[in-house]
Amino acid sequence: MVRKLQIAVSGLGRMGARHALHFLERTPRAELVGAFDPNPAARAWGKQHLEPYGVTIYDSYEAMLAHPGLEAVVVAGSTTEHAPQTIRAIEADKHVLCEKPLSTSVEISRSVLDAANKKPHLKVLCGFSRRFDASYRAAFDQIDSGALGRPTIIRSQTCDKHRDDDYFINYSKHSGGIFVDANVHDIDLTLWFFGQDSIVKSVSAVGVVARTKGLEQYGDVDNGVGVVEFWGGKIAYYFGSRMMAAGQHDETEVIGTHGKLSINGTPAQNLVEIHEPAGVRREIGQTYYDRFEQAFVKESNEFTEAVLDDKKLPFQLSGAVQAVKIGCALQEALRSGKKIEFDQMGDRIMDEKARL
Amino acid sequence: MVRKLQIAVSGLGRMGARHALHFLERTPRAELVGAFDPNPAARAWGKQHLEPYGVTIYDSYEAMLAHPGLEAVVVAGSTTEHAPQTIRAIEADKHVLCEKPLSTSVEISRSVLDAANKKPHLKVLCGFSRRFDASYRAAFDQIDSGALGRPTIIRSQTCDKHRDDDYFINYSKHSGGIFVDANVHDIDLTLWFFGQDSIVKSVSAVGVVARTKGLEQYGDVDNGVGVVEFWGGKIAYYFGSRMMAAGQHDETEVIGTHGKLSINGTPAQNLVEIHEPAGVRREIGQTYYDRFEQAFVKESNEFTEAVLDDKKLPFQLSGAVQAVKIGCALQEALRSGKKIEFDQMGDRIMDEKARL
Amino acid sequence: MVRKLQIAVSGLGRMGARHALHFLERTPRAELVGAFDPNPAARAWGKQHLEPYGVTIYDSYEAMLAHPGLEAVVVAGSTTEHAPQTIRAIEADKHVLCEKPLSTSVEISRSVLDAANKKPHLKVLCGFSRRFDASYRAAFDQIDSGALGRPTIIRSQTCDKHRDDDYFINYSKHSGGIFVDANVHDIDLTLWFFGQDSIVKSVSAVGVVARTKGLEQYGDVDNGVGVVEFWGGKIAYYFGSRMMAAGQHDETEVIGTHGKLSINGTPAQNLVEIHEPAGVRREIGQTYYDRFEQAFVKESNEFTEAVLDDKKLPFQLSGAVQAVKIGCALQEALRSGKKIEFDQMGDRIMDEKARL
Amino acid sequence: MVRKLQIAVSGLGRMGARHALHFLERTPRAELVGAFDPNPAARAWGKQHLEPYGVTIYDSYEAMLAHPGLEAVVVAGSTTEHAPQTIRAIEADKHVLCEKPLSTSVEISRSVLDAANKKPHLKVLCGFSRRFDASYRAAFDQIDSGALGRPTIIRSQTCDKHRDDDYFINYSKHSGGIFVDANVHDIDLTLWFFGQDSIVKSVSAVGVVARTKGLEQYGDVDNGVGVVEFWGGKIAYYFGSRMMAAGQHDETEVIGTHGKLSINGTPAQNLVEIHEPAGVRREIGQTYYDRFEQAFVKESNEFTEAVLDDKKLPFQLSGAVQAVKIGCALQEALRSGKKIEFDQMGDRIMDEKARL
Q: Gfo/Idh/MocA-like oxidoreductase N-terminal domain: from which residue to which, for each copy (chains A, B, C, D) (predicted)?
């Protein structure tokens, strides 16, 4: 019989439960052996949906890490736990797939990277799901082929459907804000398409609370526009929104010196168009999972393959730190209304007043 | 001062009034000098909208033909008058732009051609407006360049928006039926794209009255599907409908041995898309004039130019006879439920029973 | 531990191998236990890709059927084996998922239905993959909701990418021809959208061999147009092609009295559009599997669920017989050039000559 | 006979020649009586194309203004002449349609407004062609109907096709830069959709010279991103480019609290899509005139109608000054790298250093 990766999932919330099912059901070379969540309700879900398939449900992260034969861990609990649990798993010599962002703090993110760098034989992946999406990969291949010339401008947006409840407000308490939580994907795509070694030159941002009153108490907005300059003549600009009427609309555009490409310029949930008296209508996906389900499954499978076959991961962990750094700078610029500048080494340039 | 084509319009109904305005306002090298309509209400419209610009309004076609200096006539009245008025204008030595179809009878259509052939110095054009549409012309250029290989299959549809009144029923009395009236455009496009000399091999059709009850009394339908084989391995198939919910949708597809093209596969009235809770919606044009307005204006201008500069018309009158022949055969096949076959000369093959 | 459906796959050709992998890797509630193929090369593939996961590879269909604990069989070998193997599996009291078509013969198809009817406790499913496609299901829901009014016209096409080799010619020997092999999907969709009990009134078809010379020896074409009337004022018309330049393009349109919908009107392989000097370009899927992969996986899972939970299959086997009947009639009409007519019971009306 | 507006055109360059032809040929209620250009080559064009139709060609603007019976003037020469010629025409008591921008200087723009305010009986229109475009008007109607809720975010871009020659470099000398010349349209649209009385709060911009080396000498870029905050919680962000590979791509998106709309999200030159081995391709317009030709013609006609019938112009001249003000601020922010801030009266807030 073939060897299967022995993996466990920490966190059985919305996304953690999906990760668990992806490893249980849709990752043929992996075997889900354990799952942990501090929340009894989440564990009850696990007992119902995972335990019958031989998955042990833990109420202690440490106990889960000690599961006999465990090789790898998915860290998918609350954002504040991402870094400590990842570091702890690395120390326990486990491979890790950690949900994004590593942390809402640059320093803490960097500590995860430091821990990983000490154990180069371990695979430590930050779960930027869009990296596994077929369309973004086709886009990267085009860019990489030189078809667009030198990539110069990136426009990218992460736009959620409006919710009438207070989900976004509660979420905002710990999410780090719209640029750290949502547009971090767009920042990661930028590093992918412009090159992982791109060095940020300046960051500025503006935003408003237009519909989801209450976000302002956490220094957050429901609509934000951020602009990032990179040294070497490259610019990325982002839009994040929690206010879409029709559904989720994540879109990216890469403009090179000799061509351009767009990803998801005309969003659609499926291939149906309806002709009715009011015109022609199509539905669009409601959530990011509607858009990226296949990418998440691909992520599980490629992470598994990388561990089992000791293959290179599709991207380096250092990029995840860089993405948090830029996301945090955007959020700070949003709050202060000030442009933040960096020198050619990527180190922040303090303005005169700040230096005093 | 430059010379302008002295032209008059016969028929000030829906389409005739538009022709009059196109020549009055949007055909710089033409001068509209006269207009005729037997209907007092239509003449009243002419007196209000045309006369102030120096256009003489006539209550007799013959009188209009006698307008001093008149060089050309647009024949745009009722279908039954197309052929006699065109022939009369030719006899009076006028150039003619005649609305489609020449007639609902093949024989009468042919008599127009005969009349025109006797006066080769006159320009006689049948107003197949789609021939002047920028998209159809771009399509023809592609086909003509050989990019698609040998054109083999054409799918083409003329689909009107549903009307709650009895317009289509009254219209059906004299229109010759859906294939003669509406799909004659698709047939004409077929002759353009397959070649004017294509010879029909067989014709068959089916149809239903689904919503516009009353059409059946005139042997007509509100949804018809027709199939035409041409000698040399070419097939065209058509759909005609009076039942569209969203608006007018005329669409054509040409499939060659090495490529394909579509015209108007995703209809839209303008460039706006609206994202709302029910999805993403766009409006589409409501009438054929919404779709082909610019083509009609181009038609006026090119007809004028052909006469003034003695240039070749963009297509020959003989095709219009051929189009009526195929349209009438489709309508007959619809009524009889029988396939109609033609020999390689294009002459109809009578079945045994018919021969007896 | 949970119970998993014990299933085996007969036929490890192109599609059979996919079925095997779908049940092995992407159908959590099923366990692939056996696989059979008469061809040593196919078995070698199975030994490499399936055996390591505990799947027994058989060189005898009967031996596979005798696999201990086997509950269900996928019949995915050559078309001529579909019916005998399905019947044999039913006799051995196994549930069956049989690839389409049941047979290229109406009579043989009916014998499969008869066998299944004798064992109503067995689930016997004909693998019309489009029935499991998310877009077609969304379309059905719209139709079923009454949003389009009464469905009246269906246009549906199955168009393969051109191949330079002789694949289609060899395939044509046993496939039953383009209408039986390819458009049978469109016929099945018609029965779904018009209602499973729709009764065919007439069938006619035309076609040409435009590029894949050699098809004519098997009475087949590379481009075919078929028209089917149903009693009660409904019409379906189909296009089948083996000559697409850009890739696979399967498209369907349903026109009701009060609205219309299209499925896959603007095909695309992914969400990328490339702006380059020649214009804006997108790629489209190359094969039916590019288009329907997720539908096949859904099919495996729903079949498994229906067996394990004794749920109704999403559609009845009788429709598969009806689809073959219409497909064969279209192919016959293509060859004879004659329209075939049926009475209101769906029984064929013989013309006078044939009756003698 | 009806009265026709006696109008003359100053400037017969690329756009001026088009204005002249629009008034000569496509504005039925206007009569083009004169044209002026200081350049002999341009006058030669006028003598060939306009003079034969009775248009007097002038080599002096003053002489043209003195044309007997002249009522209105189109000012379409070089940008530096827009303001002085417009003011001179107003003084001579002529109605004026002036090409955008009024000036590249805010102060000079304001002086035009002052001149116009002194003669309220004159119609003075700044030629923001997009205001006359059918799609933008349909968008405005949607917004105005409240369908989107409160407009909150506008994204708008003006993107020209790359040119291999030094056109853009020479043009940049006097154009005022990309934000003043190109994105001024997007700014004007913003004022339309957010409301003419919107007050700017801050302006920032970044840009690069990626392909058209030489622009930097004029403080210009070939790719610029600008962000404008308005008091009251509204944000507009712009992209301007001279580097598109496929053609002109002007696109706008308006996001409201309850819905969104896009204009020209999927650009196309016509309705043709070509399926070829590399995929599905469509062409897009090459120039802004390909996109806005009908809008320019509409502009001529509505200006004419406003004068003849003493109707309100579709928008006020003051907006054109506001647009120049924002465009110039964006260009300054681009050059300085500094954010520019305004108080709630729209007056610029000087930073401490600048105040000293």
A: 6-120
